[in-house]
Design brief:
The chain is mainly α and 246 residues long. Helix content is 72%, strand content 4%. The chain is built from 7 helices and 4 strands; from the N terminus they run H-H-H-H-E-E-E-E-H-H-H. Helix 5 (155-175) packs across helix 7 (194-241). It is extended.
Length: 246
């Protein structure tokens, strides 16, 4: 490594240790210095990136003849008027951004978050999909057999599991429904259908328990390991081997 690379690696290692000191010693002066350097560096980097994007994406094309980009530039500039007494001008850029955003993402969200979930609930996934296939075949009422890991699984068992999943979906949707007309009979005390809301709460607690365990035991440990590898081990290896950090 060059002397500059070595110096930057040492500074990076020191900053990593400084940030890690917050977990061991709580808030301290060293962490405050590292935090200020991190925020200041990111602010400076973001400012230069914004100016470069503004120059290459708006100023240069406008001078080249793309006058229509001035409309987008003016709308974007009006968003900053919210910091002044002329904040009323920011409503136009917000309205355009909201309208275009809703129009663009509505179709994709409808397919990915609603239709795909319904399709997967009433169908089962082929563990060995053909090339070009999405892997979704059959339905919960198709009593053919599939094999997982070489062991044949009766479709009746898979159908039963998907029926249970369908019941969970319906019950949890009713649990989060705040309409007295639709969900009232499921929440009223003494109602014959009160058991549905109780079952929904049980399903929700099972789901939250699964997410909590996955987050605490899976993602948190993975993040800790990745932090050590990316910020500590990588710099120490570079100092020992004399090669730039990869």
């Amino acid at each position: 490594m060059t002397p500059t690379d070595t110096l930057l690696t040492i500074v990076s290692l020191i900053l990593s240790v400084i940030f890690w000191s917050y977990a061991l010693f709580g808030d301290n002066y060293a962490f405050a210095v590292g935090e200020a350097m991190f925020i200041g560096g990111n602010a400076a980097n973001s400012t230069f990136a914004l100016l470069k994007t503004l120059q290459t994406g708006t100023i240069n094309p406008v001078f080249a003849g793309s006058i229509t980009l001035l409309i987008a530039f003016i709308l974007g500039a009006t968003a900053f008027t919210r910091l002044t007494r002329y904040r009323w001008a920011a409503r136009y850029s917000t309205a355009v951004l909201s309208g275009v955003g809703v129009g663009v993402i509505f179709g994709s969200n409808l397919r990915s978050q609603i239709l795909a979930g319904i399709t997967e609930t009433i169908g089962y996934v082929d563990p060995n999909p053909a090339v070009g296939s999405k892997g979704l075949v059959g339905s919960i009422f198709d009593f053919t057999t599939v094999s997982i890991g070489g062991y044949p699984i009766p479709q009746s068992v898979i159908s039963l599991s998907w029926v249970f999943a369908t019941v969970m979906v319906v019950v949890m949707v009713l649990t989060f429904s705040y309409s007295q007309l639709i969900a009232g009979p499921f929440f009223n005390k003494g109602s014959r259908l009160e058991w549905v809301s109780k079952l929904g709460r049980i399903f929700i607690m099972i789901m939250l328990g699964h997410i909590s365990c996955k987050t605490l035991l899976g993602d948190s440990l993975d993040s800790l390991i990745l932090f050590v590898q990316a910020n500590l081990k990588r710099n120490i290896d570079a100092l020992i081997t004399g090669l730039p950090p990869t």
